[in-house]
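Batch job 17 of 40 flagged for manual review because the log was empty.
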Amino acid sequence: MTLRTHALRLFRAALKAADPYEAVLRHVRVDGGTLIAGRARYPLDRYRRILVLGAGKAGARMAQAVERLLGKRISGGLLNVKYGHTARLRRVELNECGHPVPDEAGVAGAARIAALAQSAGPDDLVICLISGGASALTPLPPPPITLAEKQATTRLLLACGANIHELNAVRKHLSAFKGGQLARLAAPAPVLALLLSDVIGDDLDVIGSGPTVGDRSTFASAWGIFERYGIAGQAPASVRERFAQGMRGEIAETPKPGDPVFGKVRNLVVGSNRLAVDAAAREARALGYRTLVLSTSIEGETRDVARMHAAIAREIRESGRPLKPPACIITGGETTVTLRGQGKGGRNQEFVLAAGIDLAGEPNTVVLSGGTDGTDGPTDAAGAIADGRTAARAAAAGLEPAAFLDRNDSYSFFDTLGDLIRTGPTNTNVMDVRIVLVGR
């Protein structure tokens, strides 16, 4: 098999390990009449109703696992999921809506989820399923902020290169749902939140903007993000006014860690990027590669991170450090793209394009980067793959790689070469997996 085939095989292994259905079943089980989640135990005959609520790209598969465990004990529920990220369910309703820019379907679904949470009493159990994408999928802007103004704010933050921690800190303070507020709505009902992490460090209050977790950010710290990127003056007037009111104490803060509303809340991380990366590493070793997982916490500007990976590949080739060929370097995490052009692409495709430029002419070297959710940016591709011959193939086709990189048009570049990775919706989301292979 070729290096390209091997790289794709490693990526498929990562996707399989990140399956949300299996992730839930690894951490949650029913023993007799008791639901056991981590160290928490829930005697099922104690509850009048069991409601399943939440949001995220992995929500459908997570709900399938919960339905397998609890079946007819589930009274009902509702999850907001990204368009196309569905599965067959019997007891829980799915509401498809927009991501990464929220839409009206998301607003309607978030309002219904909030109402269901608020209907829960002390003798009900609320199971909350949260995975990557949940923040954008649950827009519930407080009046007078409109959905259009929240969309504009999201686009503004995405374009300036804000990372997921920064983006979600802002979202929490433009929502009646996020930043612990879903737990506030459900109180005093007990809440079991199962989280599939798509954030570096698995920070509970960042995953899906932490709807069941105490919020460590404030109006002031979130407004500082606008100022840091120099976009404060571009934010909609209603958004600027809300933050001003919040910083003056005229609007209540999101509930913080230690707030009594979290007294009956249990948050359990059932899966993360590390599971996917470790599975890819096992597959690489099985194929005979000396393998190093460099980090699962890679972040920063995509182009800079790509060139670092390319430099490691060249070092392996030239000196045998940190590994002798055949070698495999794997990283996880989530980088950001600062938009400079009007092209089409995503952080994984841009990563591969930037790395491919630096690896031009390198023999027996392949680089792959893919989003585990199957969608990279606003495209139908999970990512892309390139090798030392990509630049020469592009030149033969009349393509100039650097020009495509300058205008953030990695999708068009790799689509022309046939090097996009298309998986379709994977119904999971544990950030990105990057693979560098250096053959003998």
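Reviewer: the log was empty due to a logging misconfiguration, but the result itself is present. The first strand starts at residue 28 and ends at 31. Unflagging and moving on to job 18.
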